[in-house]
């Protein structure tokens, strides 16, 4: 059965993931998330073709986490948004959790690569986005 998006919660750790494990980190909810895209894993195909071969041959590359972008309503004092912005400025690796409505939680480390405060829409709400580059393995609990 597929996961429902309603009720999905994104959390970001307060500590530096280089020195603080996810199990001991203190997490804040990334507030006002209106959507997300990306995430998951990708692997490159490594060309292993011998010059004497008639066909190309490939080896599987290392799995790599893909960037995940959260669309947000910008709230200047939201604890999760403040931590994400500080992670860029401080060049801090973060622990991140995604909790799905069914109760499954994905834990991973990530680098915040973009905090875009966006633009004011017709409804006078400032909308933006935050992008995380997954670093290392994704653990499902």
Topology summary:
Blueprint: E1 9-13, E2 27-29, E3 33-38, E4 41-47, E5 58-65, E6 68-73, H1 79-90, E7 93-99, E8 105-120, E9 126-140
Antiparallel strand pairs: 1-2, 1-7, 3-6, 4-5, 6-9, 7-8, 8-9
What's the quick description here?
The protein has 141 residues and is mainly beta.
Description:
The protein is mostly beta strands and 141 residues long. The chain has one domain (9-40, 67-140): Elongation Factor Tu (Ef-tu), domain 3 (Beta Barrel), CATH 2.40.30. Helix content is 9%, strand content 52%. A hairpin with a 5-residue loop joins strand 8 and strand 9 (126-140). The relative contact order is 0.25. The model has no long low-confidence stretch (mean pLDDT 91).
Mean pLDDT: 91
User: What fraction of residues sit in β-strands?
Assistant: over 45%
Q: Whole-number radius of gyration?
A: 18 Å
Span of the ends, CA to CA: 17 Å
CATH class: Mainly Beta
Q: Could you give the order of the helices and strands?
A: EEEEEEHEEE
- Give the tally of β-strands: 9
Which structural category do the helix and sheet elements fall into? mainly beta
Helix tally equals 1
Sheet bearing the most strands, described? 7 strands, antiparallel
The level of helicity is: under 10%
Q: Enter the CATH topology name.
A: Elongation Factor Tu (Ef-tu), domain 3
């Amino acid at each position: 059965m597929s996961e429902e998006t309603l009720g999905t919660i994104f959390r970001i750790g307060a500590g530096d993931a280089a020195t603080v494990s996810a199990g001991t980190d203190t997490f804040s909810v990334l507030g006002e998330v209106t959507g997300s895209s990306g995430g998951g894993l990708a692997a490159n195909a490594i060309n292993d073709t011998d010059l004497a071969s008639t066909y190309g041959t490939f080896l599987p590359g290392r799995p790599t986490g893909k960037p995940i972008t959260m669309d947000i309503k910008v709230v200047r004092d939201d604890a999760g948004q403040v931590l994400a912005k500080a992670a860029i400025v401080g060049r801090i690796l973060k622990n991140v959790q995604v909790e799905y409505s069914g109760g499954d939680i994905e834990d991973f480390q990530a680098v915040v690569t973009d905090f875009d405060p966006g633009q004011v829409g017709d409804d006078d709400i400032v909308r933006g986005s935050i992008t995380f580059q997954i670093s290392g393995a994704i653990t499902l609990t």
